[in-house]
Amino acid sequence: MLSITKSMALHGLEGFLIDVQVDISSGMPSWDVVGLPDVSVKESKERVRTAIKNSGYELFSRKIVVNLAPANIKKEGSIFDLPIAVGILKSLEVITQNQNDDILMIGELSLNGSLNPINGALPICIEAKKQGIKKIILPKQNEKEASIIDGMEILGASDLNDVVQYLNGNTKIENITTNWEDCLKLGKEKILDFADVKGQESVKRAVEIAAAGRT
C-alpha cells in the first residue's frame, strides 16, 4: 500500500516541499530510501525501524521503499525520520484517518520513539507558510520557536505515539501561539546596560574584550 506524507527540505533559508512516499509490499524483506538522500537520511531506516518497534507497533518483514520526491533536490539531516515512520504506519493501516495529507511533519526519532529537537525549525515553518501549509507537527522542544509564526497550527509532539494517536483522532495536541511583540518587550526588559553598572571597571573591561574576541 502506498502512502504520502508531507515534509520539507531546507537549503540555506529556502525550503522545498517534499512528498515522503512509502510503499510496502510482499517479497524479500528489504528497505530502500531513494530520491537523492544523504548519508544521514539513509541511516534513518535503523532509527525508524527501532522507534516503531519500541513504540509498540509490529513491523513485519516486508519490502519497504521510501521515495523522497522530487528526486532532483538533495535531502539532508534526520528531520525525515518522523514523516518516514508515519508513512510506514499509514501503509500498514495503523494510521487510518485520511484527512491528514495536508499536515507537514519534521522530526528526528530516538530509538525509544521519542522526538529529538531539530535545527532549522523556524525557517522551515516560515517557508512552509509561504507555500500554503497551515499545520505542522514537529518535536515539542521546537514548538516555542515555531509558534511565533502567525496563521499556522504548531503542534509539538513528544514521541511517535503522540503523533499516531493525534492522526487517528484519539487525542489532541495543543496549538501553541506566541505573541512576537510580547517577546520583544520581554527581551528589552532583560537587557543589561553596562552604563548602569557602577564600578567594577576591570570586570567590565574583561567582558568587553571577551565579547570582541580579543586577547
Provide the descriptors you would attach to this structure in a database record.
24% strand; Ribosomal Protein S5, domain 2; four-stranded mixed beta sheet; three-stranded parallel beta sheet; 215 residues; alpha/beta; single chain
Overview of this structure, please?
With 215 residues, the chain is of the alpha/beta class. The chain has a single domain, classed as Ribosomal Protein S5, domain 2 (2-Layer Sandwich), CATH 3.30.230.10. 33% of the residues lie in helices and 24% in strands. It is built from 8 helices and 9 strands. The chain has helices at residues 39-42, 44-54, 81-91, 121-130, 143-146, 160-167, 180-190, 201-212, and strands spanning 2-11, 14-25, 30-34, 63-69, 103-105, 108-109, 115-116, 135-139, 153-157. The strands form 3 sheets. A 4-stranded mixed β-sheet has the order 1-2-4-3. A 3-stranded parallel β-sheet has the order 5-8-9, with helices on both faces. Helix 2 crosses helix 3 (81-91). The longest helix is centred in the last third of the chain and has 12 residues, at 201-212.
What is the count of β-strands? 9
Note the gap between the termini.
63 Å
Fraction of residues in H or I helices? 25-40%
Instruction: Round the mean pLDDT to the nearest integer and report it.
Output: 88
In brief:
The chain is of the alpha/beta class and 215 residues long. Helix content is 33%, strand content 24%.
